[in-house]
Structures are given as structure tokens and as C-alpha cells.
# Entry
Amino acid sequence: MNWIYLLLAGLFEVVWATTMKMSHGFTKLNFTIMTIVGMIVSFALLAQATKTLPLSLAYPIWTGIGAVGSIIAGVILFGDKISLLTWFFIVLLLISIIGIKASA
# Structure
């Protein structure tokens, strides 16, 4: 169950990062509120996951999910342009996240 908490925490990290961009510097109240709620949920789920998962495992996976998810959200929602070399490193990041989980 703690792995599910960790996955959800990472997904909510993507939510708050995305809505923070959409808040335009916290000038749009609805997206500002969504950002704060996303942060609280993300941190609460991470805290729940780290009750039994080691921090040295949970934190890098949480940040990795957030990083890769935010990149994908940026490309899809905001039209961010990513070079082929950058995609290569994103794939390496995914491999690293899977490797951390697999070696735990």
C-alpha cells in the first residue's frame, strides 16, 4: 500500500507543479488554491509512504515521478519543446527510478 501512496504522492507533485504554472505567479486564485491543495496532498502521501519505506528510496522516486511527469505535462499542456538529447536523459531518469525500485 505504501508504494501506492508514493506513486500518488508523485502524481500530486505533478499536479501542484502544473497548477502553479497555470496560476501565473499566484495571480489566479483557483489555480493557486489547486497548487496549495496539491502540495498538501503530495506531502501527506509522501509522509504516509515513508512510515515504512526508507527515505533513501522514497524521496528519489517521488522526485523522479514529479520530474518526469512535469516534463510530460509541460510538453502536452504548454507546448514545451524538448530536444532529442533531453529525451534521452529523461529516459535515463526513468531507468534510474525503475532501478532504484528494483534494487530495493
